[in-house]
Amino acid sequence: MKFWNREAETMSRDQYADVQLKGLQKSLRRVWMSEWSRKLLQSRGFCSPEDVKSLDDLKRIPFLTKDDFRDAYPLQMSTVPRKELLEFHQSSGSTGTPVVMAYTKNDLNQWADCMARCFTMAGLEAGDAFQIMPTFGLFNGGFGCYHGCRKAGLFCVPASSGNTVRQIKLMRDFGVKGFCSVVSYVPRIIEMLDAEESGDHDIPSLRVGIFGSETFSDELRQRIEKRLHIECFDIYGMTETGGIGTSGQDCKFHCGLHQWDDQYITEIVDPVTGQPVPDGQYGEVVITSLTREAMPIIRYRTHDISRIVSREKCECGRTSLRIDRITGRTDDMLIVKGVNFYPRQVEQALMEIPGVKDEFQIILEERNGMTDVTVNVETEPGVTGHTVAKHLKERLGFLPKGEVFPIGALPRNEGKAKRVIHRKLDESHA
């Protein structure tokens, strides 16, 4: 088994604890240098970084939230002079003021190192061709892959997003071994391959697919692996932690997302009370950075739902904490007729129905305080809406409407798929 940084990835739990305490104390002192952040922590009852003497003191530190990032827009959380900042990325900002993450030279190197660990864990080696399909721009995906490719010595194919015909041609022409994209874009690649008149229908050199930014079911993973003859990896990271890959990835044994314990502290807390939950219990992921300079985060509430899978050594040889793949977000949980569920659970149920394809939509129509659910899905001929609805009722506990469409009928997106559509109807639509 190969490692990018064997020493950092195979420490004992005691060694990780020592590194994390020192990193936490250093990050707190750095955060204290930002007047904005210092006042925020003080307003929430935290007196001084000197109060943190052990990792047990972590729970005494207030949480940081996405709203805090927005309030600090653009750079009030920065702890370094403006001249030391070399780059920044930000969230889409589609729901308000965007979240900004700025980088010093050391921050960019830390990000690249995390990505190199991910690439190596997926079986990529120096010289392998790697195609980058996330957009290059303010979104962190494209540049994060690029920085990682440079660090790991991969042959970078910076395709960016869209133009599926060109994506396929580049993969074939340059013998691409691995690629990164949002998982909802892969069915579009498969559709184009299936429709080729040349009869090729495959990309012989392809071995690795790395997918981030969206949750996806094991059933969809298996479909993609079987059709493209690749191994799929789930990469984790977000703007606030420093970008794609900074929060880890699964290894070839696919038994949880390895966290970079020398770079971050990962907690799982009760979304309501904020208190830590026992290992194995689902809760909200909270992350603290240990080595970042420009904008370190302390106890950032990600809204992602996961659980601690293991603190023991993995079969791959890594000793870092492993959390489950993200099942959803606290802010995308849907409540219909008294039943709580996540879009990923709908996907998982749909993938179990023979003849159902990968594209689907969840339509929520609210009328006079009541919510009706329709699941639109593309299927092969012979699959009925009744079949879809019946299976979803068995899996989810309530009966939605099922509407089936021919393959290619539902809209496609080059970025993240829009799986949930909310509609508010008045009585005139009844």
Q: Using only CA atoms, what is the Rg? A: 22 Å
Helix content percent band: 25-40%
How many extended strands? 21
- Unreliable spans: none
Number of helices: 11
Q: Estimate the strand proportion.
A: 15-25%
Instruction: Categorize the overall geometry.
Output: globular
Structural class: alpha/beta
The overall average pLDDT, rounded, is 90
Assembly state of the chains shown? single chain
Largest sheet: 9 strands, mixed
Short structural description:
The protein has helices at 6-9, 13-31, 35-43, 66-71, 105-121, 140-152, 164-173, 186-195, 218-228, 343-350, 385-396, and strands at 87-90, 100-103, 129-132, 155-157, 178-181, 208-211, 231-238, 243-250, 257-258, 264-269, 283-289, 300-306, 308-310, 322-323, 328-329, 334-336, 339-341, 356-367, 370-379, 401-405, 420-425. The protein is of the alpha/beta class and 430 residues long.
Walk me through the structure.
The chain is α/β, with parallel strands linked by helices. Helices cover 28% and strands 25% of the residues. The protein contains eleven helices and 21 strands. The chain has helices spanning 6-9, 13-31, 35-43, 66-71, 105-121, 140-152, 164-173, 186-195, 218-228, 343-350, 385-396; strands at residues 87-90, 100-103, 129-132, 155-157, 178-181, 208-211, 231-238, 243-250, 257-258, 264-269, 283-289, 300-306, 308-310, 322-323, 328-329, 334-336, 339-341, 356-367, 370-379, 401-405, 420-425. It has a nine-stranded mixed beta sheet with strand order 4-3-5-6-7-8-9-14-13, sandwiched between helices. Strands 10-11-12-15 form a four-stranded antiparallel beta sheet. A four-stranded mixed beta sheet has the order 20-19-18-21. β6 (208-211), α9 and β7 form a beta-alpha-beta unit. α5 (105-121) crosses α6, α7 (164-173) crosses α8 and α10 (343-350) crosses α11 (385-396). The radius of gyration is 22 Å and the shape is globular. The mean pLDDT is 90.
